Amino acid sequence: MLGEFSQKDDILFYVGSAAIGLLAGLAIIAFVASTANAEDHPDFSGTWKLNASASHIKDSKLANECSKLTISQKDSSIRLVDTDSPPVECSISGKECETKEAKVSFWFNGPKLVEMEYKGHAGHARKRRLSLASDGKTLQMEVIPITPAGDTSLLAFDKAQ
Questions:
Q1: For residue 148, is the peptide bond before it cis, meaning its omega torsion is within 30 degrees of 0?
Q2: How far apart are CA 10 and CA 23, in angstroms?
Q3: pLDDT, tens digit, for every residue of 83-126?
Q4: What does the alpha-carbon distance between residue 80 and residue 65 come to, in Å, rounded to a whole number?
Q5: Order of strands across the sheet with 153-159?
Q6: What is the largest CA-CA distance in the chain?
Q7: Which positions ≥6 away from 5 have C-beta within 8 Å?
């Protein structure tokens, strides 16, 4: 008869259904996580030129120091070159890297790329937060002096390449 099932058949049915549901749920979670990761970590790669008229610069040295940025971003690392500074290449996991002049670390805070920089023996520290416009053609950089304390500058960049 069609309606006769053993208790073993019932258990197999429920376990199989639960396994299929679990696998489907895990697949959905993995898809959402990969999509969110791509949105949270935009690609900053390119050559960027300072747009002084769209910037609010509190420290006049920044205009010369950051007149041009070149950024090369990979899955787990980033290489950043300021106008007159040596290149900095570091992981984006927040792990500290050392150059001749500074200790630097990079990480993402949502869609913003954060750089923390410690320079010299005098204990100069600053944080820079980069955000990319949705069209990928403009970039904003907040420069936040920590030690010595100072006013935050907002630099605007246009993509050159």
A1: yes
A2: 20
A3: 777 888 999 999 999 888 889 999 999 999 999 999 876 678 99
A4: 13
A5: 88-91, 77-81, 68-73, 46-50, 153-159, 138-147, 124-132, 112-119, 102-109, 97-98
A6: 89
A7: none
- How many whole angstroms separate alpha carbon 159 and alpha carbon 2? 70
Q: Is 102 helix (H, G, I), strand (E, B) or coil?
A: strand
As a whole number of angstroms, the distance between CA 155 and CA 63 comes to: 8
Cβ atoms of residues 97 and 105 within 8 Å: yes
Check pLDDT > 90 for residue 129: yes
Q: Which residues are CB-contacts of 96 (< 8 A; sequence separation ≥ 6)?
A: 103, 104, 105
Helix, strand, coil shares of the chain as percentages rounded to 5?
Answer: 25, 40, 35
131 CB neighbour count, 10 Å cutoff: 16
Q: Which residues pair with 118 in a beta bridge?
A: 103, 125
